[in-house]
């Protein structure tokens, strides 16, 4: 973070793994398949070790990682990525069924979009049924547009009482955040969670997303997305970062 001196994730206080039990039943909202493992796979695994219920809600259809593939047209890409997510949840020992909203990858509707309120209604219904004590979503200014839109959807959906606690996890802010994207003074409290007891489990969950890892299994789209080794290194650390807006 040498070029982003305003905020450094590495200096946040470290909380012990056992502290996660205070979160209670948790819903993790993921923009794409793999965000759940990258951003909070360790927390999920720790919750499940403590027998705390966890449910994952997938926002997008995940089809734009390899948009030019003919071997894997959109429906096949969607099925593949959902299957990879299901395997990741097996690795994390999540028992609750995966919920998929199926919104368009790269075009998740944010505030002001024609379909924003429709998506909010969908998500609110899911959260109302789940009645979680805590909801996790991407950091509100995580650089990927779908991540920002997902955060907006979650915050707009949490209008019922009692409102769950909202924690925000970091994915692309590790790599692409500009200073204005990071938490500003007095905006949020942040902390690191010690996930060393379940780090190997998290790595297995990440590895389940085979289409996103080199060499990949979608081999007919050379412009397709793969997670870089530099990006993956952030998620091999024995901690995860969480932010809570004050």
Summarize the structure.
By secondary structure, the protein is α/β, with parallel strands linked by helices. It has seven helices and eight strands. The protein has helices spanning 35-49, 74-91, 116-130, 145-157, 173-176, 199-207, 229-234; strands at residues 14-15, 26-30, 54-60, 99-103, 134-138, 165-169, 188-194, 239-245.
- Distance N terminus to C terminus? 23 Å
Class from helix and strand fractions: alpha/beta
Helix content: 25-40%
Total helices: the number is 7
**What order do the strands of the largest sheet run in, or round the barrel if closed?**
1-7-8-6-5-2-3-4
Strand content: 15-25%
Low-confidence stretches: 1-5
Global outline: globular
Mean pLDDT over all positions: 96
Characterization of the model:
This protein has 246 residues and is of the alpha/beta class. The protein has a single domain (9-245), classed as 3-Layer(aba) Sandwich (Rossmann fold). The chain has helices at residues 35-49, 74-91, 116-130, 145-157, 173-176, 199-207, 229-234; strands spanning 14-15, 26-30, 54-60, 99-103, 134-138, 165-169, 188-194, 239-245. It has an eight-stranded mixed sheet with strand order 1-7-8-6-5-2-3-4, sandwiched between helices. Strand 5 (134-138), helix 4 (145-157) and strand 6 form a beta-alpha-beta unit. Helix 2 (74-91) packs antiparallel against helix 6. The radius of gyration is 17 Å and the shape is globular. The relative contact order is 0.21. Residues 1-5 have low confidence and may be disordered.
